[in-house]
Amino acid sequence: MKNRQRKMAVLLCVTLSALAFGGCGQTVVEETAEDVAVVQTANPEIGELKLNANFIATINPDESVYVIPKATAEVLEVKVEAGDVVEEGDVLAVLDDTMAQISMKSAQIQLDNAKRAYNLQYGEGATTLNDMKSDSTISQAEDGVNKLQESMVDAMDNLQKAKDKLKEKENELADLKVEYDFREDVDEIKDYADTIDKNTPQGAADYAAVMQRYQAAATEVKTVEGTITQYKSTIDQLEGTIEDLQDNIDSTYDSYSQAVTSTNISNGELLEEQKKTSQNGISAAQLQVDQVKENLEGYTITATISGVIETVNLKEHDFATSSNPAFVISNKNSMTATYYVSEDVRNTFALGQQITLEKDNKFYDGEVIEIGSALDAQTGLFKIKAAVKGDTDGLLSGTKATVTTDTYHEKNAVIIPYDSVYYDGAQAYVYTVVNGKAWRTEVTTGLYDTDRIVITEGLTEEDTLITTWSAQLRDGVDISTGESNTDTDNSTQE
User: Fold this and answer.
1) What are phi and psi of 295, to 5 degrees?
2) Confidence of residue 176 (pLDDT cuts 50, 70, 90)
3) Of 116, 268, 278, 353, which residue is least crowded by CB atoms under 10 Å?
4) Residue of higher predicted confidence among 94 and 121
5) Which value, in Å, is the radius of gyration of the alpha carbons in the chain?
6) How far from the centroid of its chain's Cα atoms is residue 342's Cα?
7) Cβ atoms within 10 A of the Cβ of 33, count?
8) CA–centroid distance for 461 within its chain
9) Which SS3 state, helix, strand or coil, does residue 258 take?
10) Looking at residue 129, what DSSP letter applies?
């Protein structure tokens, strides 16, 4: 505009001079740059324009599993802590399997006995069942084995009950010590009593009250401790009894076997039904052994998936049960980033859209797998969830990370330089070149960034766009794409 004003002033001066000195024989030749606009041109390009935005996302595992104890028993050892990385099958905790081991021995004994009986009755040189039953020595030996097995079952049941009572009394003792321990333990109650001045009426009364409390606490604690000692002794006795019963079963069955072997009874007709019954007994005993063996495996708690230990709900000497999860493991190979956006931004997202995740200067790839359809009650925004692809090392559950993605994008769009667009009020327009002249062309704009803008209507890739400004630029002006001095001075010729 300044250039244009300057040129008008020059023309005015020349005109006035000509009027003032008319008849002087001089001819004025006006050569003004206003007749030509020197600009740069280009064709609109067809391409893609994206706008990137950053969001703060929370990292969480897409898969978390609860590890449920299969057995009910005391915890002997916990081998992991929260945050540890584990592989599927790794040992997480070990439970007390004493009772399970006894059950395993009992089941194995019953299986062995069933197989022995079958071999004695139906194996090589075996006698008929009726013949064997007719021998009183054999019958007595068999009855002895059965009774010993029944005693074994009773002893195992009593052992479990004694252990349960022991646990109950240990908990009761702990509660008592908390109840009566207004210092550290029951013994300190008496120490405290000894500090009271008993020579005053109030002191004597306080002393008596404290000592009464001490006596009550000491008596109750002593009673419970005595009960605990008793149960521990009972458990030792029962465990010894079970070992003795096992020895007796083995010894008695040896006698049973010898009695059968020494009884030289001619072979009789084997009843097929009796043989089938014996085989069924072996199958049932084998099934019991298999079930007990499977149960025994439950006393070792293992990781069901590879991942990160999120929660540990057990400690040593706790009582594990199937009603409470012992551990929570998140799948380290399946992490997600969750963030929240406004409605207008939400509408720009599509399933499968790519994202970049940055955490501690390390970058991860991901893609959108969930677009919220309702406002989150807490944030008032829409939830977006993206799955992290590839390596997830360094991404811990519950931590924050930065998500970068394109929120707006135009594909196969007509794109021109941002500075090529001018505005007349709300109306956008550009200058194009037609037959060597500039012409104003109204356009409709779309997505833009700092350098480029999308034209949705008004231009095609075949148009020649004027990309630079000139003070001479107007409808119908000649266009030059060469270098020129727009401030060219007017000249005169005589």
Assistant:
1) -65, -35
2) low
3) 268
4) 94
5) 48
6) 26
7) 21
8) 50
9) helix
10) H
Q: Are strands 382-389 and 335-341 parallel, antiparallel or unpaired?
A: antiparallel
CB 317 within 8 A of CB 112: no
Q: How far is CA 123 from CA 112, 250, 270, 278, in A?
A: 15, 21, 11, 12
Tens digit of each residue's pLDDT (9 = 90 or more) over 277-287? 777 878 887 88
| Tokens linked to 329 | 């493991």
- Could you tell me the domains of the chain? 2-51+412-480 (2.40.420.20), 55-62+331-400 (2.40.30.170), 64-95+299-329 (2.40.50.100), 98-284 (1.10.287)
Q: 236-261 burial, b if ≥16 CB within 10 A, otherwise e?
A: eebeebbeebbebbeebbeebbebbe
Taking the complete model, does pTM exceed 0.90, yes or no? no
Q: How many CA atoms lie within 13 A of 364 on its CB side?
A: 26
Matching residue, tokens 């769009």: 413
DSSP annotation of 35 reads G
Q: How many C-beta atoms surround the C-beta of residue 46 within 10 A?
A: 12
- Cα gap 123→284, rounded to integer Å: 19
> Residues 132, 120: contact at Cβ < 8 Å?
yes
**Closest to 337 (Cα-Cα) out of 355, 351, 352:** 355
Element housing 337 (H / E): strand 335-341
State the CB neighbour count (10 A cutoff) for residue 412: 7
For tokens 């020895």, name the residue: 247
C-beta neighbour count of 152 within 10 angstroms = 22
**Distance, CA of 382 to CA of 403 (rounded, Å):** 15
Block residue for tokens 């009566």: 180
Specify whether the CB–CB gap between 74 and 439 falls below 8 A. no
CA angle (320 as vertex; 314, 323 as ends), nearest 5: 105
**CA distances for 107 relative to 9, 47, 239, 246, 296, angstroms:** 118, 77, 17, 12, 12
The answer for residues whose C-beta is within 8 angstroms of residue 413's C-beta and 6 or more apart is 46, 47, 48, 49, 446, 447, 454, 455, 456
pLDDT at 105 over 60: yes
- 366-385 burial, b if ≥16 CB within 10 A, otherwise e? bebeebbeeeeeeeebbbbb
Mean pLDDT within 443-451: 87
By the 10 Å C-beta count (0-12 exposed, 13-18 middle, 19+ buried), 283 is classed as exposed
